[in-house]
User: Fold these one by one.
Assistant:
Number 1:
Amino acid sequence: MTPAISARGLTKRFPIQRGSSTRGNDSFLALDGLDFDIEPGQAVGIVGSNGAGKSTLLKILARILPPTSGRAVLHGRVGSLLEAGAGFHPELSGKDNIFLAGALLGMKEGEIRRRLDEIVAFSGVGEFLDSPVKHYSSGMYMRLAFAVAAHIEPEILLVDEVLAVGDAQFQKKCLERMESLSHNGQTVVFVSHSMQAVGRLCQRALWIDRGKLRMQGPVAEVVAGYLKEGLASTGERIWPDGPHAPGDEYVRLRRVRVAGPDGQTAASINIGEDFSIEFSYDVAIGGMVLFPALRIFNEWGTETLWTTDSTSPQHGQPVAPGRYHYAVHFPKNLLSEGLMAVNLSITSLCPTRVHLSEPDAVHFQATEVIDGTTARGEYTDAITSVLRPLLNWSQSFDSL
Amino acid sequence: MTPTVTSPIAPLRRPLIARKSLPVTIIEPTGRGISLFAALAEYAEYSALLRYLTLRDLRLRFQSPLLGLVWVTLMPLLPAAIFATIFARILQPSTGGVPYSLYALAGFVPWTFFSTSVSTASMTFVWNANLLNKVYFPRAVLPASAMLASSAELLAGLVLVCGYGIWRGYPPLLSWLWLPVLALYVALIAFLVSLGLATANALNRNVKFAIPFLMQIWIYATPVVYPISIVAPRTRFILALNPLTGALDAFRAALLGTHMDRLLFLISLAATAVFAIAAIGVFRRYEALLAERV
């Protein structure tokens, strides 16, 4: 059978832009010679850490970006859902936006008209159909956006992480819809940070690691391999040689690590205990004010928190050349469970210059020991919130 | 069977028997894009998108219909009135007996359409950078829809100038039937200029600062406020290299029954063809790169 998608040597190189001008040779290899075939009717998950090239691959298949070299052949109409609500205009009514977004996804007018009732029913916006979408709640907006995209029914559907938004019930509905599409013989390519969603929806998976195809095969094997590596990572990264370390001529990253409550390097932390993230960097040219910042992303790719050195006495002070060591202390009962990716960036302002931004500076697994002392207490069911603070509850009681 | 990473991968060949009903998309590096014919066929596929984008722009512009109408009427009326009161008194250009205010309005109606539609349409790639990065669609739909939405102004302007002409004692002529054709011609020029500028704008943001200057120079390189007859014959041919020169001269001739310089029109027509080749060439060269460069 002719594969629905067939890629050979697919490579993408991005020029690195510094300031406003593009320098000749600086480039970043986002995808490096990918070869794969996807059979019609399969649902294939693309997994990998942040910045591995998953979204770039999807954008190339969706014809948004051209590859630098290599080739892909797609058999069938291609629909892509890279952002729910792309093309929506806040001033237009829900109905007008359905037509606009549908046309943007390549639907013909007649097709949209035929499916209008179905789309409206799926989205559940009902009586608000004729009011401008700026008055919608974000949940309604997302539901409408996904509803349009879910009804394009192309032979090949490319989906990027749109499910990361919306409430749990709606996420379930989206997954069900995608499941039924793939049962109808449509090919679905699905990029997600959620191993649960990939595992449920897909039969096969591709694991992309730093632009290279690391593994492909049945979904269970690939997901297991990917997760195992996340767990096996040492919780520490060191860049010994100068010019290859993340950074620029001013600042170079040296070391990042996650430390448990005992100060030992840890690949996994217990959310019921304190932990810290430590990093060191070299400043070669001083005189600037540097803002080191950490962002933690959960496995859905949701930014859970952002923090900078605002509590340090040196915050906002110009730096001298030398090596700087930081330790950021995280209190217990802050994060939820799951695989966390730490983004480390160092920026100076006026003019804004990002000296380094390392999307996966270090990974760690946040685990929970259910012993009644964490925020969940004795509750054992799944919790989907990104934060898990232990808050003070009080109760008063009157007998009836 | 799907090859796995460990097994050698067969070189990709074009499938000999593709299922006939399925369209085939071949994704390759830029420079080996699809043929112009295939590209045009794709635009036909996306005609609904062009329509809805145009309707969106129109709906947003005429959210309060009365105010929108006042606005589109004032746009050509105001500069025409200013030139009629100042320019006409100082220079007293010979307009072949046509009142200068009518003459200027007949120039400003197509000119205002041209300049506003180019100013907005040339920004469409930059304004829609997020959309370009999230959805595939044939890109020229964006400047085309902005230009089409502006043509509401041209339509309102046509009614305005015809009405003013009748009021000033210029009865409707048979040549008025040419006006829609000439309006389309001006719209085509506006689209070509916008397409080229929008692409340049996406590649280099400094272009947007040059556009207002370009428009200021362009208005004087076009017989908007002066009749082409006051220009020395040799200079006339240089001005004719500007596609709008022939278009506006013909527009006035059709509207007011004034003399039309056919040679000038033919030269402008040829200039339009050159503009078309250049604009479409630049656009097609960079079309695939718009999302990452913008």
Number 2:
Amino acid sequence: MQVKALEDLLAETPFFKDLDPAYRSMLAGCGVNVVFRAGEFLFRENDPAERFYLIRAGKVALEIAVPGRGPMIIQTVQEGEVLGWSWLVPPYRMQYDARAVELTRAIAFDGACIRTKCEQDPKLGYEFFKRFSVLIVQRLAALRLQLLDVYAQP
Amino acid sequence: MSALPKQRCCWRMEVDLWVWDLPPWARSSSFLGRCQLAELTSPTAASSRMQQPQSQAALAVTVERAQFALWLEQFRRWGYELIGPTVRDGAIVYDAIGSAEDLPVGWTDEQRPGRYRLKRRPDAALFGYTVGPHAWKRFLHPPRHRLARVRRENDGLQFQADAAAAPKLALVGVRACDLQALALLDKVLAGNTFADPHYAERRRQALVVAVNCLQPASTCFCASVGAGPRVRFGFDLALTEVLADGRHYFVAEAGSELGRELLKALPHQPTTPEERATADRLLTAAAGQMSRVLDTTGLKELLYRNYEHPRWEQVARRCLTCANCTLVCPTCFCTTVEDITDLTGAQAERWRRWDSCFTADFSYIHGGSVRATARSRYRHWLTHKLATWLDQFGALGCVGCGRCITWCPVGIDLTEEVRAIRHADGATLAQQKEPTHASQSP
Amino acid sequence: MPNPETHIYQAQAQLDADSTNAWPTASAGALALQVHAKAPGTDLEPMSPRPCRVLRLKTETDDTFTLELQPANSTSRFNFVPGQFNMLYVFGVGEVPISISGDPDRPRTVLHTTREVGAVTRAMRRLRPGDMLGLRGPFGTGWPVAEAENNDVVIVAGGIGLAPLRPALYYILARREKYGRVVLLYGARTPADLLFRAELERWRARFDLEVYATVDRAMAGWRGNVGVVTTLISRAPFDPLNTVGLVCGPEVMMRFAVQELLRRGVSPQSIYLSMERNMKCAVGLCGRCQLGPVFVCKDGPVFRYDRIAHWLGKWEV
């Protein structure tokens, strides 16, 4: 897919919609189309966090391997959602396994490259910070509710 | 036409009580106490009242002490079971009595927060005290009541509810605060979405003989909630005891059609203006003797906006959650249901029993109690009585009888609690410094 | 409101006519109650249980089961409104409130779905077809299914909360053309705890109903969603300005679900919750089910959100 078409795609995605067009086109330049078959891993725990993903279609399960209990799915991410924030914070290592539950198409962005660009252009950095902090807060809120285990036997 | 001065009612309305202009049978039922009061004061209602047949002036009679003793005998002859105040276990309680001699003749009570003592009076007054640990609710809404009997039979279950039969009780010595409480219980137990037929039947059958208070206890505050000390409605007969000039008599009046009928057959004589004036003077003096006050201005909103006030934490440190207050309170109505089976397992019974919101499992839902701490339970009780009652039943749940103050083992005084919250309205824990002793709070 | 003046005269006339008292005239107490006079039959009915027979007991999940009951006088129909509950009595053990989970258009039998959480529900679980229970009800307010006509309907259910919502969904699906988009969002603890699984799949297969289910956690191999049910709200297809939200589940879940609906733009007057508190009488007389100023048994259990918003989330109310 050409960069131009990728740019249009980003313009429609809620996550990147209000981004300055110049930044959007830079971002498009850092992105590639990827496909994962059902069962394939996008990344494993402790992999270097080089990328983050925008899921275009399909579903990805975030798993933690628990010895004696097998892998537990703690969250699923689907179309339109962004996956991966470990590229933003040291030590830049993935914390979970991410496995495609079904055929999944995504755009993978070069996190290291964008990080460097953010260092050079703080305004770009701030735009990413704004978006990712919202994402993290939302995930945290959902996670806390999950933690309460509200459906458990009293 | 005489009119009573504007009264501040506990229902947050100031109304003109044109009591004496209504026909006698409507005059004194607790119907007057409800929200329909608003309609009574509307212009159309007032004008239609003008056209009613000329009502009699308040019919007062004089009853000598000896005649009053005959009254009680006559009630018994008419089939009433006499329930009245009597001395037992160092307190004046309500129980079955045989005659006027069973009343606490010559006794009075001395009440303070957490303290109740009986003292001898210098005279032989029959009603020279206020209220004790019992409320009249125990005879109309009994502490234990069977709801149903269930028999297990071959092919199923048979349910048998008891019929709503009620004893004929003559409640003798009902104070103004208690009359208010009965009117409030009517609203809760018989005036809501569902009614309790057992309560209703007992209420219908009961003869209410009220007595005016002439000597409020130090814990009384009925005047500030508009419940007394003068009885105004809800009675069949009302008495004011007078001991003056070497005489001992009652000024009595009827407050319902039944009361008027009975009065015709009870010994009495016409009241002289001097006797009437003496009674009025005593009643007026009584109102002035009340020192405790509950300021009800904006009380509901005050409590609603102070749910996290530090005062709750302070009172919780004193409160034992012993439930005494709810047991002695004349308007507390909460109950529980217990299931009992016999040993053969063929018959079970469902019993309703008084319960208290102070018990740990009152608010239990699977997993735990919603109100687990003493703080939340005390807060629930007080805000229910003084705030949410207003939203639920259109009236303040407190009648100012002071029982909860007297019978609290640690002497918690709800008028003081309200005052403290009002004084630091809107305070939070962060703003308040911790007092070392609860009594240091304002 | 009847004219209080004529009402008094009527009351007096009635008293004179049919007093059972030995005295021809009414006591103060009788007069006090006369103004509260109820229609005959409304007093005794709610207090006496009627015998019902167990037709079927179905295990739904590990700890949840459905009881199908029929009144012992088997010709009588059991009419109820979606959202109501019954008080079910197990001989010698006790009585508990249980949500009605069946179809209001099929009143020959009545279905109740509950979790096994205490002595009474444990005893209930051991019942067999043919056993008898006592039933009082139906009690409480229902979901605003009639008021929701011409709107989108979004149903957010968590865990056992799907049980009292199922009758609403049946009602809506039976009158499907009266509603806009209908969306069911359902969350459970794990895939094994999904209630009415077969029915969920049938609903999902319909073209006129959107069903999204999620679980709090799962073993690898689960191909559905994992995450709390509130995360489904932001993506669900409905028009917030013309939507009625029906929410039921653990109270914490309901609070957060309501926040998500509000964030999406649904008005607080268009969101309804089903609350739960300790109940003994179910008729507003025992005082136990109070939530601030409301009685959950008779002012609820279904409440419009703005009515109880002030009290939700307050600690220990």
